Amino acid sequence: MFDASDLGAIWLTLKLASVTTLILLLVGTPLAWWLARTRSWWRGPIGAVVALPLVLPPTVIGFYLLLALGPNGLIGQTTAALGLGSVVFSFTGLVIGSVVYSLPFVVQPLQNAFGAIGQRPLEVAATLRASPWDSFIHVALPLARPGFITASILGFAHTVGEFGVVLMIGGNIPDKTRVVSVQIFDHVEAMEYAQAHWLAGAMLVFSFLVLLMLYAGRRDKAGWS
Amino acid sequence: MSHTIRARLQLRRDTFSLDVDLELPGRGISALFGHSGSGKTTCLRCLAGLERASHGRVEVNGEVWQDDTQRTFIAPHRRPLGYVFQEASLFAHLSVRDNLMFGWRRVASEQRKVSLEQACELLGIGHLLTRRPATLSGGEAQRVGIARALLSSPRLLLMDEPLAALDGPRKREILPYLERLHRELDIPLVYVSHSQDEVARLADHLVLLEQGRAVASGPIADMLARLDLSLSQSEDAGVVLEGTVSGHDPAYQLLDLRLPGTDAPLLRIAHPAQALGSSVRVKVQARDVSLSLDADSTSSILNRIAVRVRECRPAENPAHVLVALDAAGSALLARITRYSADQLQIHPGQALWAQIKSVAILG
Questions:
Q1: Which of B89, B102, B103 lies nearest to residue A120, judging by beta carbons?
Q2: Domain B238-362 carries which CATH code?
Q3: Which CATH class is domain B4-233?
Q4: Domain membership flag for residue A186
Q5: What are the Cα distances from residue A215, in Å, to A54, A151, A153, A204, A221?
Q6: pLDDT value for A224
Q7: What is the pLDDT of residue A219?
Q8: Residue B312 DSSP label
């Protein structure tokens, strides 16, 4: 069924998606909170930048990331100066790429969830002595729970399905950057259709189950009274 | 500690400006009354600090909450206030009990003045504790909202039309609880409303707001009796009177109510017995008062009172005039036709008899 290199690719893919989703929730929550509530002029431009990965070909994102992460790029020079060396063609590089690539899939559900809560619950919390931080933790986050579930599922699934960006900045190094989608590409190139079938089928079932979770879970969305 | 709530608020929006200087008694219920867009809710939000007046000063019973000359602005969550919104706005992710305890938990234990049991008893919500907010009726949810505000042991309660989102029966369900709060708790309450009926029942003090300005402010009885204010033009125009129960006729089920002052008149009201000496507030609608030149004792009208005309003004409806009357110190309003006013030659100082068709006991 799966050989060692297939299992390595599956393990790497799950690790990449988990780390990426975790980072995206940490970065995306404050960003989504800001986007949902600010009246600043910057809301438009920053919202558009966050949404760019939705429309850009992965090769374009990959190309610019390659330049930025490379020895002459801003991020590459910074990592070199910090003694971390180059992150291109490494797992760290893949994580950075995936975070950028899946950003809108996490930020937008969160932004919608925070927007749907509105101002009122936070005003109520303030009149009940809750500081802004207290209100955020004990009112905004629990009320946005459906948004967090959607954001986690979409962020994870979208990272699993990534191909173009990985090829551009990660290459094809077994157990370091060779994820499932790349592995399938390799099998097809090598005419190993049986192997490709197993992996492609697994991806299909996985994606279906993820989307099923998302759509079946929509019903018990918490309301606001 | 001075028992006063002072608020000087100036605020400018695209379509609206607010400029008021309020001085409210530091106890009892003060109503901010006006039509929608008059600025009453904005005033309340500024008192709470949910909105910030650009030039303002808010002082509540000796504590300064905002003073822009000193760059003082206490954040809402640091103000010891309770706020009841128009919609109950319960936290959907918490049970009724956790909603109630939300503020209570955030108040230092030595500052807690109200217990969960007291609040539940006061608002009759003890049986709802384990429920989710989504399963409550509008009236129940609003009672929980009021109890939740009380449990943060506020030194000032603010209510923004807490009954406006409810239908008639639900309103009547909550009003007695509000009257109870008034009687049993010593927390000053600022109450925003556009219902003259609610205000007449609850308020001790009234501020009339029109287009972001405070037009007049004073004790409720005085304000409702003034002909120069728009209050007297409303369909519900009338006065409130505070009287003392001085007797009860069990055979006819009539309650005697003595109005304050020497040789004050006695009102007789169809009502079950109440404790002698207890204080009762009644409303007499202007449309229920008719005037005659002599004490015609042949009609079915129960209450005939000797009065003197203070003032007479045309009503908005050209067929009517409004007459302000003095009944041995108590103010009355009468709305009569202009034809009758001319027939009786109504003029200030004139002695007349007022016939009161009905007197409504308010709580």
A1: B89
A2: 2.40.50.100
A3: alpha beta
A4: yes
A5: 20, 13, 11, 16, 11
A6: 38
A7: 57
A8: E
Do the domain assignments include residue A124? Answer: no
Domains of chain B, by residue range, sit at 4-233, 238-362
For B106, the closest of A123, A130, A225 (CB atoms) is A130
B55 phi/psi in degrees, rounded to 5: -125, 110
A225, B90: Cβ pair inside 8 Å? yes
Residue at A108 is within a domain: yes
Distance from the A140 Cα atom to the nearest Cα atom in chain B, whole angstroms: 10
| Structure confidence by residue, pLDDT tens digits, B124-158 | 999 999 999 999 999 999 999 999 999 999 999 99
Residues from chain A contacting residue B85 (CB–CB below 8 Å)? 120, 123-124
Retrieve residue A147's tokens: 């948004």
Domain containing residue A36: CATH number: 1.10.3720.10
Answer yes or no: do A129 and B152 touch at CB < 8 A: yes
Whether chain A has a CB inside 8 Å of the CB on B50: the answer is: yes
Give the count of domains, chain A. 1
Chain B, nearest residue to A123 by Cα: B50
ipTM computed for the complex: 0.87
The verdict on a CB contact (< 8 Å) between B48 and A131 is no
Measured distance CA(B267)–CA(A64) in Å, rounded = 88
Cα gap B323→B198, rounded to integer Å: 23
Distance from the Cα of B324 to chain A's closest Cα (Å) equals 43
| Residue A159, CB-side half-sphere exposure with 13 Å CA sphere | 31
pTM of structure: 0.86
Task: Give me the pLDDT at residue B105, please.
Answer: 95
Cα nearest neighbour of A128 on chain B = B103
> Is B65 near chain A, with CB under 8 Å?
no
| Region for B89 from its dihedrals, namely left if φ exceeds 0, alpha if ψ lies in -120 to 50, beta otherwise | left
Range of the domain at A175: 4-40+75-114+146-220
More confident residue, B217 or B274: B217
Q: Does A133 lie at the interface with B, CB-CB under 8 angstroms?
A: no
- Taking CB atoms within 8 Å and a gap of at least 24, the contacts of A172-176 are A173/A89, A174/A5, A174/A8, A174/A9, A175/A8, A175/A12, A176/A12, A176/A89, A176/A90, A176/A91
**Does the structure show a pLDDT above 70 at A222?**
no
Residue predicted with more confidence, A77 or B353: B353
Q: Point out the least confidently predicted range of A56-60, A220-224, B70-74.
A: A220-224
The one-character DSSP state at B227 is T
Residue A33 within any structural domain of the chain: yes
| Model pLDDT for residues B309-344, shown as the tens digit of each residue | 999 999 989 999 999 999 988 999 999 999 999 999
